[in-house]
Structures
1.
Amino acid sequence: LSHSDLSQDVAGTSSVSEASALAVVGKGARLLGPRTVLGPVTCAIAISGDAP
């Protein structure tokens, strides 16, 4: 849903938060929306594909 040039330069992927959230939830996961950035903190939220 979004990307970060800094993440791409540092980690080799442009969506560390989103990818991490999806990986933790597992198969069928989906993002609830774009990542949120507040100062040095970035957060992405994913839910199970089984959730309504």
2.
Amino acid sequence: MKRKLMLLLACLFVGIGLVTAQTQKVTGVVISEEDGQPVIGASVLVKGTQIGAITNVDGEFTLLNVPSSAKTLQVSFVGMQAQEV
């Protein structure tokens, strides 16, 4: 009985490790191509999901719990052409 319990706990810890490894944190800076200045308030969205963020006063953003399968970010701002990166 004790051996089965230890095996169950070991499987549980391995399973938790695999689940947490499937997401990642993405950070970056949005900069205007025209003048090289940070873009304040730009929208950054992970394509195909509802995960997104708005850039701060330094143009920086952080996206949490991004699936490792996500490959594209959509960046948009009023008055500028949206881009996929």
3.
Amino acid sequence: LFDAVLLDRDGTLVEDVPYNGDPEKVRPVPGARVALDALRAAGLRLAVVTNQSGLARGLFTEAQMAAVHARVEGLLGPFDAWLVCPHDDSDGCSCRKPLPGLVHAAAQALGTTPQRCVMVGDIGRDVTAALAAGAQAVLVPTPVTRVEEVDAAPWVAVDLPSAVAEILRR
């Protein structure tokens, strides 16, 4: 059913540290490495799809962001693609989630279509972006996820390993 799994970064793969430009602050969510390795072993392609408005706001540099991403890969293994929206909400781009631009771009980068992708994220923006592009979406709530986002999500998992187990079952 799926060719690829698209994953939000902050709050989904790693603990959410607002506007993190420091690789030393990267902490994977529990079970992330094992879960991602299971997806890789099943032959699924993986992409990180992340809003990083801290770039637009000057809160960290591209080099700092690249160092954070290198640390994520060092801890969690390689991803086939990284798709980043560097804009702020006021920039009017088409890539910032909840708009579907990054999901379309990720599918293209991975050589598939959004219909063959599933997006895993921790807030409504992730789900909305995936569904708008024609992808499936799994919400993995955290303490910052709003109740109405959970209620609106078509597919909810208690944590990343549970989401991955369900993806692999489908």
